[in-house]
Amino acid sequence: MAANKIFVAGHRGLVGSALVRRLQAGGHDNLITRTRAELDLLDQKAVHDFMAAERPDYIFMAAARVGGILANNTRRADFIYENIAIATHIVHAAYAAGLRRMLFLGSSCIYPRDCPQPMREDHLLTGPLEQTNEPYAVAKIAGIKLCEAYNDQHGTAFCSAMPTNLYGPNDNFDLESSHVLPALMRKIDAAKKENQREVVIWGTGTPRREFLHVDDLADGCVFLMEQGVEDGIYNIGVGEDVTIRELAEVIADVVGFDGEFVFDTSKPDGTPRKLLDVGRMKKLGWSAKTSLRDGIAGTYDWYRENY
Q1: Catalytic annotation on 307?
Q2: Which tens digits make up the pLDDT trace of 28-82?
Q3: Catalytic: which of 95, 111, 136, 150?
Q4: How many domains does the chain have?
């Protein structure tokens, strides 16, 4: 079931901007967006007033405080407070305004650190979380549980999507706060330009990660909306993973860097492996389309044009 009036919260971010592109390409032209200056999602009254006035038919909840392992580990209070506040304000304001349909965007870091692989939706809350990003994960779990509780008590149709590691246009390439793929792309590109023979990479290079192009995520999210999915958690990924070393090698090939990688084992690896079980989405009839190399090549083109 498609929606007429759609609010994309966080439309300038990696996920939100991809959702806007995908919705517009699919003929959804009645989109509502607000910058942070226009609507502060940390302001409860402002969010309630906005929902009551605009009354969107569907909400994509893509707004979040996000970052890589360094940002997560050093700004722990920001990550838990802001993400819980945003989720609480939007979910309750939507319900209070009589709005029924929403997709909450979470993250694969909600699953236990030593989760069986691949990670299924029912593995949630079956073990301790990865310590380096626990505040962010707890906030995202709270958002999922908010959606479930409002569905149970108030009959809303709020579902949740859990993407794996994302990359693509509008990613964050700041080395202090970015995720691993854009950070490696920036480092490797700089090494090539400066004729350096080495690139230093955090950790051992052995952790395995799954990478999904953000346009594929957006396609999966719009698919859930158009299928009329009304509750539950849905992993969205590719179902395959690579080591950090293998990722660096693909980026180096795309960039044209032929130097060496040096692994700084004094830095943390994070979770040993994060691979999603994407069976629920496949059963509905959806799967990702973009190969890792093609996605990295397109992202590198965007990076060169914008940085």
Answers
A1: no
A2: 999 999 999 999 999 999 999 999 999 999 999 999 987 777 777 788 999 999 9
A3: 136
A4: 1
